[in-house]
Design brief:
54% of the residues lie in helices and 25% in strands. With 249 residues, the protein is of the alpha+beta class. The relative contact order is 0.11.
């Protein structure tokens, strides 16, 4: 068996299970995010094209994990099958050493290592930035579409929002009641006469600007219960739409 042909055969036996493992591992990790992305189409009317772009932006973060795992699975399954069919014994009896059989695997391992390094150092940071920008655009343009009046909405992480009335043309909300559970064990209760979403293009953040309201907070210090009431004319709450979608570790 010529050297090139022998190496191609060993590479094929390793690459096939590696490719299958890569597809399966990536699909399993993306399943949780896919459900949330599909929810954007259903509840917020986000175009499928934008959701598909977000899906692509998520891939590098998962390929960093799934690519080495799939390669390890490919080596175990590929050489396991060769050993079970006694093909390794046949190759050794033909004068092929284990080092020679491992040469194509070493080359493939080097390529996988370089690809993982490029994904970690370049593709993953760029994709996270692009994902954040995409989420910001969706939040800026469609933040109030999924919020229904006179219903308790949990669209944003750590917040439960209730609005008595919503002007669909301007996005202005009136009669707001908010439970803020982002800090402390006891939620802070915020009531406001009106509010609207305000985008910050510099920090790619979205804020809910409340007007004419009060914050009610209960705290336990030692054996005493403390109840605080803070009135405000304007109060900004930073909204978090993308953390659950991205699933940052």
């Amino acid at each position: 068996m010529p050297i090139a042909r022998r190496h191609r055969y060993l590479l094929r036996e390793t690459l096939i299970p590696t490719g299958l493992g890569l597809i399966i591992f990536t699909f399993v990790l993306l399943m949780g995010r896919m459900l949330k992305l599909v929810e954007l189409v259903v509840t917020k009317g986000v175009p499928i094209r934008e959701v598909f772009q977000m899906f692509l932006y998520l891939l590098p973060s998962f390929l960093v994990l799934t690519l080495p795992l799939a390669f390890l699975l490919g080596i175990l399954l590929g050489f396991g099958r060769l050993s079970a069919d006694s093909e390794i014994v046949a190759l050794k009896s033909s004068g092929v050493s284990l080092y020679d059989m491992a040469r194509p695997v070493f080359v493939l391992a080097l390529a996988i290592s370089l690809a993982t390094g490029l994904l970690t150092l370049y593709a993953q940071p760029l994709s996270k930035s692009a994902f954040k920008r995409q989420v910001f655009e969706i939040a800026r343009n469609r933040a109030t579409i999924g919020i229904q009046p006179r219903i308790f909405n949990d669209e944003f992480a750590g917040l439960v929002l209730y609005a008595d009335r919503i002007d669909e043309s301007t996005g202005r909300m009136e009669g707001l009641f908010i439970s803020d559970q982002r800090q402390g064990q006891e939620p802070a209760i915020i009531v406001a006469r009106s509010g609207r979403t305000i985008p910050d293009t510099e920090s790619l953040s979205l804020f809910l600007r409340l007007q004419d309201g009060a914050i009610h907070r209960s705290e336990k210090r030692s054996a005493d219960d403390i109840y605080q009431t803070i009135e405000f004319a304007t109060y900004d709450i930073q909204l978090d739409l993308g953390a659950q979608l991205q699933g940052e570790r």
